[in-house]
Amino acid sequence: MTGRTGRRGRQARLEISENPVDEQPPVQPGMTGGTFRPLSDANLSDVNEAVLSLLETLGLSQASPSMIEKVCAEGGSYTDDKRLLFPRALVLKTVKEARRDVVLYGQKEEHNLDLSGARVHMSSGGGAPGVFDLEDGHYRDGTLNDLYNAARIVDAMENIHHFSRSIVARDIENVADMDLNTAYACLMGTSKHVSVSVSEPENLQQLAELCYTLAGSEEAFRARPFLTVMVCHVVPPMRFAEDALETLEAAVLAGFPVQLISAGQAGATSPATIAGSLVQAVAETLAGLVFARLVDPNVAAIFGPKPLVADLRTGSMCAGGGEQAILMAASAQMGRYYDLPTTSIAGITDSKTLDAQFGSEKNLAVSSAAHAGSNLITQSCGMQASLLGVSLEAYVVDNDMLGNILRTVRGVEVNTENIGADVIAEVCRGEGHYLGHRHTFSRMKSDYFYPHFGDRQTPREWEEAGSRPIGDVAKDKARELLDTHFPDHISDENDTKLREKFNIRLSRAQIGRA
């Protein structure tokens, strides 16, 4: 009986899929998370109290002159041992008055991302020095063209909502040229919002001019900025990075949204305990937020405590374990506690290939951060080898994973229509199954996420199709996209303007415009 029902079910699916209903998609950017709460209310209060106390009594060292001046003018103090202390009242005022209405604009309007509340969005990221070659699978240094290719693939993945610079262009030796061309490659490769870092503060102005030119004017960019500057403004534990503070100040003044990132490593540059690492990261990040808002009270700032985990047997980073997953969930929960636009780092597998370790580590970490309500989950796709390498085919595989995760974030909508008691009664008195029923037909597109590459064939069908692992299928898709998908949201006219003004290293042929 079970076998006959299964065959009949497959036939019914074939019949109804010929005429799919045009419904809202089952997942989309900005699904609301926040239901996973690893910290109790008492835990949240304790973490917050420890953060405020550390900032007020220990503070941070190596502050820039500009920061010292601004914080001290608001009641802070600079101690004899050169530590900048942040009064509790100033930190609380900063959190209270910080913007909650941050939108990350795409170069196309359909890619705008609303970071308010507990809305969840998925992003690439990593800044990896290498790539796993699409053709032979071997690890090699990353290039500018690899970065552009990564952006193009992400542009075509509907469940990757944002492109954070994922590859360091190691074929460009001049740092200023690398910063500029990194932004160009990302912006040319996708119309989604882009985030990049800046190596030296003096390179910021050139990046601003690039964005102003693309937007049509400085005013147009400031109104709808489509690029965020990521700033690791601290060198944990509890020390500022002075050059990064100068970059942060310049970015804020130029109209960029900013990610304020603390990325200590538990057991190395932050306490080995999850709670201690969390407290330090939150304190360091809030110190950056204080400064950013003193530079410009209207800054679009994203709270980014991104503590990492070390394998204490070796001291090397190991971001694929349960410790990393729960640490990111707790960090996201602190963002929800403060009601700040929040970014988390999750999806950093230690695996070097698309294997069981790859899938389990990524899913665990990204799911935890998403259900805890992180607004922007970076490194959620494409990354392998503890952030040392990017896999282009992994973006294709991860797109399916992210869709499934977002479906779990959407959760269960309980109402009279969804419970369907009348449908249950009708079916039980009728054919005895729901296959082909109008209720099933009406929900097949709106309620169910269907993976593009996740295999759901029977074993026999899979064998007859060649028994191909998902990585091989994903490589074919990645190759197809690299051959055919050349985004054209930046016109030839604008590209010509950029080439006249700046030392653009990607050729017209490489961007499909020859």
**Overall number of structural domains:** 2
Instruction: Specify the CATH homologous superfamily of the largest domain.
Output: Trimethylamine methyltransferase-like
Q: Could you list the spans in which at least 5 consecutive residues all have pLDDT below 50?
A: 1-22
CATH class of the largest domain: Alpha Beta
Distance from N terminus to C terminus (CA atoms, Å) equals 61 Å
Q: In terms of structural class, how would the helical and strand content be classed?
A: alpha/beta
Task: Offer a concise description of the structure.
The chain is of the alpha/beta class and 514 residues long. 45% of the residues lie in helices and 11% in strands. It folds into two domains: 41-95, no CATH class; 100-410, Alpha-Beta Barrel (TIM Barrel).
Q: How does this structure look, described?
A:
The chain is about 45% helix and about 10% strand. With about 525 residues, it is of the alpha/beta class. It folds into two domains: about 40-95, no CATH class; about 100-410, TIM Barrel (Alpha-Beta Barrel). Strands 10-11-12-13-15 form a five-stranded parallel beta sheet. The protein has a four-stranded mixed beta sheet with strand order 1-7-18-17. α12 links the parallel β17 (about 345) and β18.
